[in-house]
Amino acid sequence: MNEVRGSVVVGIDGSRPAELAAGWAAVDGRGRNLPVHLVFALGGVSPVLPGTYPMQCYYEGIDSNARERLDAAGDVVRAAAPDVRITTAVTNQPPVPALVDLSRQAHQVVLGHRGSGGFPGLLLGSVATGVSARAHSPVVVVRGDPDATGPVVVAVDGSPAGDAALDAASERASRAGLPLVAAHAVPEHHRAPAGFLEEHVAAWRRRHPEVDLRWVEERGDPRELLLAQARRASLVVVGSRGRGGFRGLLLGSTSQALLHHAACPVLVVRARA
């Protein structure tokens, strides 16, 4: 597990979205001086064992295919960030438990928005949502065609997970030299505390005075607000669950809407224990 500790873990299956995830992880890892760990989950297929047995050729073919796809993903990482250290692994576990287990040691887990092969269920609502909901580390689902110069957008609601998201978004905006947009939606028929958003982000403004911090506060559906902001963003950051203006921020509501429809990568952050 030493090669996983503090690394950027990427789920690989040979699909184009998984390659995009590997490229995104390479650039992010380079910016943080972190290694990239590429993993292929066989999903219950027996690994290759020494010796001869009736299905040996079949299992060797599966293992060889997994290794080839990991090699291809490694080429993507090297093309994007030649100096990033790469490690690889093939696991017999199904994708969700494998990646959740690795997330205990990882800096973050990165997935493509849709997959095939070793991750045949890598559609939103299966692997991506399963890992995003259960991972111990932050999870990035790479989707859309992000504007690398666009702002980092973060959902703010005053919840512990929302504050963790604001921490993560502030750090990323500072490191990348990008603007930060804090977005808060007030449900219809709810009274919003006067100046809630401006007061809530004040501490982060003091902590990161170098960041161009802006905020957007609107009445209406938080999903619509964030999806609209994501069209111009390089990354949108949400907490795994929220309250207040984003009180439905569970996977399956606002965060799931972003995972399904955002025009840029989505980072899901869990509250600190």
3D architecture notes:
By secondary structure, the protein is α/β, with parallel strands linked by helices. It has helices spanning 16-32, 56-80, 95-103, 127-134, 160-176, 196-207, 222-230, 254-261, and strands spanning 8-11, 36-41, 86-91, 108-112, 139-142, 152-155, 180-186, 213-219, 235-239, 266-269. The chain is elongated. The two termini are 23 Å apart. The model is unreliable at 117-123 and 244-250 (pLDDT under 50).
Structural class: alpha/beta
How would you sum up the global shape? elongated
* pLDDT averaged residue by residue: 83
Side by side, the strands of the main sheet go 3-2-1-4-5-10-9-6-7-8
Helix content: 25-40%
Number of strands: 10
Task: Give a concise summary.
The chain is 38% helix and 19% strand. By secondary structure, it is an alpha/beta fold.
Note the main attributes of this structure.
273 residues; alpha/beta; ten-stranded mixed β-sheet; 10 strands; 38% helix; elongated
